[in-house]
Structure formats: structure tokens, C-alpha cells
Amino acid sequence: MTPYSELNELLADLTSSARDILGDHFVGAYLQGSFALGDADLQSDCDFLIPVSAPITADQEKELRVLHDEIPTRPGFWTKHLEGSYPLLDELRTLDGLGSDWLYIDHGWRDMQWSTHCNTEVVRWTFREYGVTLAGPDPQSLVDVVPADALRERMRSDIPRLLDDLATWVSIEMAWGQRYAVTTLCRMLYTLDTGRVASKRASLLWAIDALDPRWSELCRRTLDGRALGFDPEDAAAPADVAATVALAAEATAIARRTA
């Protein structure tokens, strides 16, 4: 399932608990994100999807909220790093479902929210092409093919506003935030170029080879710094902040040229 026995036990418990709560509405349980694409490590969240065949009832929502309120209080590492949604299958199946809110838990949080966080082209593509089945049918039977052009169009829309969006919850003046910005830009540029989705590590390695050589050292430092993790007291080097802003401007220019 994953290389981490503690996480495997937690996922088995999550799957069993969700099945008990949702009953006949339970479609399956799956991993997407880093654990589906590969290259997951101790800096990764564990991203899950648990599709439902009918709208979640008030009683089911109450029980799911109790479950996800309790999980982060358990001992262990991965109990604080689960993140995922409970999508309505009819909305998950096609891109017509974009914009719908799904019941969602953010990593480390105890309070669920209704959110579009997982309701994206990228999540659908990753889930369909690489999703890891914990329970239920093959992901390819649940989600239609996500066209490469749909992924590219989303990147053209998202790249120009990335730094503004990040500024609402993290500063690139912090080293982790700066590395996250570079990594996300590389992932977006990879998808814009290939019409596919890659892991953080794979996208940075691609960027080192594929982008203008002036970005190579920035990408290498970002890759090397991943193991440092999140430290709010760790300030980014001013030169790296400036290079990140410049990379965002270059990515925006590339996105506009390909429109």
C-alpha cells in the first residue's frame, strides 16, 4: 500500500470507518497525490478520495466530522497528515462537476469543511491514471479521461495568479514557502508542456533539464531543501526570493505564449 506501516494501518482504519458510516453510499477509498504519483516521503501529505454514490446525509456528515476530529488526536506521525475529500461520484466522474463543494479535511486539521480543494482537473487526472485502490472498483471506471488540453488550460489560468494565491496563506519570505512556490511553478510548467501531472521531485528534475539553464540552480536548491521540511523561523535567502518572483514572471510569459 505505502512504505509506512503506521500509515497503512491508519488507512485501513479510515477505510473501514468510512464504509461503516456511509453504508451503501460508500463507493471506495483511494489514494491520489504524491502516494499515487510516486516520490512520496515524510514531507508529503497523504491525499485520499472516498467517493459516495449519493449526497452525504446530515447524520453521515456528523459521524465523519467526529471521525476526522478524533484522528489527529491519536499518537503517531501520519494521523496529522491525512488530507482528502468525499466527492459525490456523479460530480467526480466528469469535468462538469468542477465548482461543486465536497466534504474535505485539510492535513492536521480537526474541523472538516465543504470545499472545492480536491475538485480539480489535476486531482481527477491523477486519480484516474495513478490512483491507489484501498477498496472499491478501478479508478478508471469512476472518472472519465481528463483531456490534456483541459489540464493545460487550467495551468494557463492558475500560473499568473499563483504567487497572489500563495500569499493568502504562506509567505515566500519563509524558506518552506519559497521552495513550495518554485516546486508548484515547476509542476504547473510540466503539465503545461506535457498535458500530464508529475510528482514534485519529478517536476523539479524535469525543470532542471527542460527550462532555461538560468533556473537550474534554483530548482536544484529547492530539490535539495525538501528534506528540511516546514520551519516558520527559517527565512528564505533574499536571492532565492527574487529568483522565485522572476521564475513566476517567466512562467506567466510561457503560459501566455502558449494560449
Automatic annotation (TrEMBL):
Pfam families: AadA_C
Residue ranges of domain Adenylyltransferase AadA C-terminal in the record: 142-224
Keyword match Transferase: yes
Keyword line: Transferase
Molecular function terms, GO-annotated: transferase activity
Record protein name field: Uncharacterized protein DUF4111
Source organism: Kribbella amoyensis
